[in-house]
C-alpha cells in the first residue's frame, strides 16, 4: 500500500490518512491592562488542571516554570508588559505531577482600534513528545518522490530549527500543526514560510516576533491568493 503524500493533502482531504500528528496545542490570551490570562482547556490540561479549575495568574504561571527557565520567562513577561511585545518563547514547565514539558509559545499582538497593543494571544505547543520515528520515516519516504516539495519542506524545517532552537522532528511537528490547523497543504505552508522570510526585518531582537506573525498568518495569504 502506497503511503499518503503529506505534501499533497490537507488533514480533511478525502479519506487519506495523515502519517503524523501535530504537537499538543492550546491557546491563550494575556491582557495587559489588568494582567489577566485566559487559557484554553488544552493549556489547563498541559499544566495538570481540569479546565476552569484554577484562575491562571502570572504568579501561578511562573510557579510552574522549570527553575532554570523561570527567570527567563519572568523577564519576557516584564518586557511584554513594558513594550507591548508578544509573549513568544521556548521554555520548560512542570505540571502538577512534576512532569517536565518542553513548549514553544507562538504569539502575536492584540491591537485596539487605534493600533495600540492591548494584549498578546497565541498558542502553546507541547513538544515533549516528538514525532514517532516510524511516522517521520513514512513522511520522509512519502515526500521523497517529489523532489521540489521535499526541498521546500526541509528548508522550512531548517528555518524553524534556527528560529526556535528546536530539532528537526519538532520543526516538522510545527509545520504539520499549521497544515492541519488551517487545512492548507504542508508543502504550501512550507513554501510560504520560505518566501515570506524576505518580509522579516533583520535586527535580531525583532526576528522571532516577526517570524511568529509570519507563521500564524501564512494560511491567510495562501487563501487570499487562491481566491484571487
TrEMBL record:
- Give the enzyme class: transferase
Domain named PAS is located at 39-84
Could you cite one Gene Ontology molecular function of this protein? protein histidine kinase activity
Does the keyword field hold Protein biosynthesis? no
* Signal peptide coordinates: none
User: Which InterPro entries does this one have?
Assistant: ANTAR, CheY-like_superfamily, PAS, PAS-like_dom_sf, PAS_fold_3, Sensor_kinase/Photoreceptor, WH-like_DNA-bd_sf
Q: Which domain of life is it from?
A: Bacteria
The enzyme's E.C. designation: 2.7.13.3
Q: Does the keyword Cell inner membrane apply?
A: no
Catalytic reaction list = ATP + protein L-histidine = ADP + protein N-phospho-L-histidine
Please give the Pfam families that the UniProt record associates with this protein.
ANTAR, PAS_3
PROSITE patterns for the chain: ANTAR, PAS
**Keywords (A to Z) from UniProt:** Kinase, Phosphoprotein, Transferase
Task: Domain (ANTAR): give its ranges.
Answer: 133-194
Record-linked NCBIfam families: sensory_box
Official protein name in the record: histidine kinase
Q: What is the lineage of its organism?
A: Bacteria, Bacillati, Actinomycetota, Actinomycetes, Mycobacteriales
Amino acid at each position: 500500500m502506497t503511503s499518503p503524500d503529506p505534501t499533497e493533502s490537507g488533514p480533511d482531504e478525502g479519506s487519506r490518512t495523515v502519517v503524523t500528528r501535530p504537537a499538543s496545542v492550546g491557546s491563550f490570551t494575556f491582557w495587559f491592562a489588568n494582567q489577566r490570562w485566559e487559557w484554553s482547556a488544552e493549556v489547563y490540561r498541559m499544566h495538570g488542571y481540569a479546565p476552569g479549575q484554577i484562575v491562571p495568574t502570572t504568579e501561578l504561571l511562573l510557579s510552574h516554570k522549570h527553575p532554570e527557565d523561570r527567570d527567563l520567562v519572568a523577564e519576557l513577561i516584564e518586557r511584554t508588559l513594558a513594550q507591548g511585545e508578544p509573549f513568544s518563547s521556548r521554555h520548560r514547565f512542570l505540571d502538577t505531577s512534576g512532569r517536565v514539558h518542553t513548549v514553544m509559545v507562538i504569539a502575536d499582538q492584540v491591537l485596539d482600534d487605534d493600533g495600540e497593543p492591548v494584549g498578546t494571544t497565541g498558542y502553546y505547543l507541547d513538544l515533549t513528545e516528538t514525532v514517532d520515528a516510524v511516522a517521520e520515516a513514512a513522511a520522509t519516504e512519502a515526500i521523497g518522490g517529489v523532489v521540489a516539495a521535499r526541498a521546500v519542506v526541509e528548508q522550512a524545517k531548517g528555518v524553524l530549527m534556527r528560529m526556535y532552537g528546536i530539532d528537526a522532528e519538532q520543526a516538522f511537528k510545527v509545520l504539520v500543526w499549521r497544515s492541519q490547523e488551517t487545512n492548507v497543504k504542508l508543502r504550501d505552508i512550507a513554501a510560504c514560510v520560505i518566501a515570506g522570510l524576505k518580509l522579516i526585518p533583520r535586527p535580531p531582537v525583532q526576528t522571532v516576533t516577526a517570524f511568529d506573525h509570519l507563521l500564524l498568518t501564512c494560511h491567510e495569504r495562501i487563501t487570499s491568493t487562491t481566491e484571487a
